[in-house]
Amino acid sequence: MMTRRFWFLFFLVFLILLSLPLWGSSFYMFLVTEIIALSLFAMSFDLIYGFTGMLSLGHATFFGAGSYIFTLSIIYWQANLWVALLLAINGSAIIAWVIGFFAVRARGTNFIVITIIFSLVIFYLSFYYKSITGGDDGLPLKVPDLVLGFLSISIHDNPMANYYLVLAVVSLCYLFYWRLIVSPMGRLFVAIKSNEERTQYIGFNTLKYRLISFVISGAFSGLSGALCSMTTHYTNNKLLHWTTSVDVVVWTIVGGAGTLIGPVMGACIFTFFREFISFHFKQYPIVIGMVLIFFIIFIPQGILGYLLGLIRRERK
Amino acid sequence: MDSILNLQEIHTFYGKSHILHGITLEVHEKEIVCLLGRNGVGKTTTLKSIMGLTPAKRGNILFQGENITRIPNYLIPRLGIGYVPQGRHIFPDLTVRENLKIGIVDNKVQVKTYEEIFSYFPILRERLNQFGGTLSGGEQQMLALARALVPNPKLILLDEPSEGLMPRMVKLVVEIIQKINHTGVSILWVDQKLVTVTEVSHRIHLISKGRVEYQGTPGELVENREIQLRYLGVKV
Amino acid sequence: MAECLLETRLLTKRFKGVVAVDRVDFQLMKGKLHAIIGPNGAGKTTFFNLVTGGLSSTEGHIFFQNEEITHLPSHEISKRGVARTFQITSIFRDLTTKENIWIGALSRKRFVGPFSEASRIFDLRSKTEEIMVLLNLQDKQSVVAENLSHGDQRLLEIGIGLSTEPQVLLLDEPTAGMSAEESTRTAERIKKLSEKITILIIEHDMDVVMGIADLITVFDQGRVIAEGSPTEIQDNPTVQEVYLGT
Fold first, then answer.
1. Global pTM?
2. ipTM of the complex, rounded to two decimals
3. What is the spatial distance between Cα B83 and Cα C230, in angstroms, rounded to a whole number?
């Protein structure tokens, strides 16, 4: 996959993204910022699902947790931007560790059920503690300025700075994920997905590695949630809702699991879809459902999976 | 005597694993034909291929002249073939009565009455309302046989019917099978132990590595110690 | 004095009412090609599952190189140098031949990190190369395992086991589903492997077993009923009776 054609496309896209604020309207810039932030969520889900073979239907827990930790640390502790983001990552990582501790001891359906249960509990807790979380009303947020040495850049009032910050962070995360999947640990994740029992019989404690995958995924999903709230200046517990968990699964399946970029494409498509179709058609979730069913039956490898298959056949 | 079952060069695979390398054999009407061989040679696979559970990739299976090689497997019992799988596989959460009722594979076929069943398997009369899982090994074997017998099949496939049973039970099972055969039902019987089938079978086939390597009457085989050791024992 | 690598003492496994393995005393000596045979339900595969950590024993002890491994999980036992293959092929179907073996080789590294680039790790590359050449799979190194022939998949099965640099290799019916000719070739391969590594094999194919085993243990109904050289076993009347059922 790492061919010259790929690199060319990759840099082209990156250049477009880099230059977007110069030619895009503020509406598009906002939308693309959101998509880039959500891409991180999508990639993080792909790590556990497309690479390690664990289907979680409760990933909104980490996304929402990251968003809330970010927001609440700013509101209550006046945390600066870096600290808030770091707390979001670490907090989500800890939550992922706790949930993962139980979840990875289960397989298949039981694993899914455990992720769902924790997700529901946390969602309902967010209603119970509405005074802190704002429940579905949510909490507005004043994003602190970005301080780099003696330079202070406004993020809250400067959409362009916000955009570049999100782009920079997510790009770094993408590089991290890319290194991870070509590393021995990444190859081990894939082996676990392929045949977990055999992986154990050749000497690996698969529970340990599944937990590591789960925690990394949770941590960066949290960062994604934080970046989203940073961009929208807002958080509410819809981010913890099971529909958010389903969203990321839909992006991954339609985009193509196990490819890192596939789920990003899925996030892109569905976010644009939501923006433009919902305007004309209030019942657009039905359309999303139909699209999902179509893909599961006819193109289970997703769009990117399908395209890669074509390229492979073309090579032969 | 007419042929009721005809296997012609059957090749069956489990995925890529080539288990049957061209099985050819014939069962005539009212015969008890036995298939013997060590583990892993393809005896169970042969029966499963006939029943369509692991369909044959190549070759033909003819039942009463009709080619049944690739018809959907749930239709095969309705043609008049009963199957008693290895390990019995009765339904543990259903009662004996319900297990027997499941044996009615086709509403159009004349089935055996309860009385007729009890005449072969008196023990089941007392257990009619007990759950299958509470029966002893021997009783479960009876139930599995009875279930196969319910729709009045013309041919019954047996896979190691005496496995894991006490010698007394084994004798009983063999007697019942012989009784069933005397009413005109043909039997294809798979087993590992020669001594179990010598008294009742008409012909014996020995299978090795997915192929029929020897065929003869029980009398002939009992005389031939070399062949016995080669295909059933540990001699090479 | 030959070294005993794998030993069981009074090893027992009971399921609901059934004793699958009954007080088995067993010794696998270093450098030998040892075979386990027995009729159906004799407990051979259960025995394998017990000594490789796939199943927990009810009673008894298992020792590997004099260390007690009775209650260790399968990955711990593998780390100590016991590799096993499966009767029903259990390879990494969506990985290539090379990656399959590479993963096995990776298991011997103390640290599996997210930092280096996997394909660049030299010692893993050379070990993988070595094993592929040994099993004549190097021409198919980039073929996705799912697409290999059955015989090659069975070889890959063994290759994955070998890549973990075991002291002992347990082969569960390695010639399952093979034709007579393929079985012979596989048997020769196994014999050749036994020159470098201690092998314990479960097999039903008597030609294979009698042809290559140094020592044969016969199981029946969970118990060891005989042990000896191929000739001794073939001439053993108890064994013949157990198989023929008289």
1. 0.88
2. 0.93
3. 38
